[in-house]
Amino acid sequence: MLEAPKTNRARFITFEGGEGVGKSTQVKRLLANLHRLSIEAMRTREPGGTPRAEAIRSFILQGRSESWGAGAEAVLFAAARLDHVTQLIEPNLQAGTWVICDRFHDSTRAYQGLTGGVDDKLIRGLETLALDGHTPDLTIILDMDPEAAFKRVALRAIEDGLVQTGDRFEKEDLNWHKRLREGFLEIARNNPDRCVVITAEQSADALETTIWDAVCQRFPELLRGSQA
């Protein structure tokens, strides 16, 4: 068994991007790669991760908050995030467990802020409240043309024999998703020390390798562990 690399603290890694870019798959693969190095790590998601946050997730993705507007949705996401951070993310990081999260605060900034038009002052205020100082150590933004992403999702649904219904955000039109993509790219440009943009238009295996290379570059102690 490989020896776990010595590091001063657990790391907090988030995955971001538009609909259908493969975040959930890559979160699972990164977690497996960390476990192969005997690193204590867990995965979670947003909105969600705790019972109260999962209840808010269901309410929003069912479209029940849509008529309230993007501002109200941003507040709901922040409420879910605050519970998620205090009840799950912070305790695990303090215990030395790496946390890999499928979406985090950048999604609120991209979806409700840059795409939904919510005032930046409100977004920043909600971030201050909900994050409680827990900014990710690394954010991986998976980038893909929305039209290609939707075709990929449709193909997978056909292969799995599923009926596509779409949640609250998947039902938005193509132009909306193009603005969303630009929103994530703007976040990356404004946070170059934290964010890494990786094209998702490659095979799942190739994408996994690219992501692992980016993670190891950010946290070189992982390379020392893999060579033990």
UniProtKB/TrEMBL annotation:
Keywords: ATP-binding, Kinase, Nucleotide biosynthesis, Nucleotide-binding, Transferase. The keyword Zinc does not apply. ATP binds at G17, G18, E19, G20, V21, G22, K23, S24. It comes from the Bacteria. It is an enzyme of class 2 (transferase). One of its GO terms (molecular function) is dTMP kinase activity. Its EC number is 2.7.4.9. Residues 15-211 form the Thymidylate kinase-like domain. The keyword Glycoprotein does not apply. It catalyses: dTMP + ATP = dTDP + ADP. Phosphorylation of dTMP to form dTDP in both de novo and salvage pathways of dTTP synthesis. Belongs to the thymidylate kinase family. PANTHER family: THYMIDYLATE KINASE, UMP-CMP KINASE 2, MITOCHONDRIAL. HAMAP family: Thymidylate_kinase. This is Thymidylate kinase. It comes from Devosia neptuniae. The lineage of its organism: Bacteria, Pseudomonadati, Pseudomonadota, Alphaproteobacteria, Hyphomicrobiales.
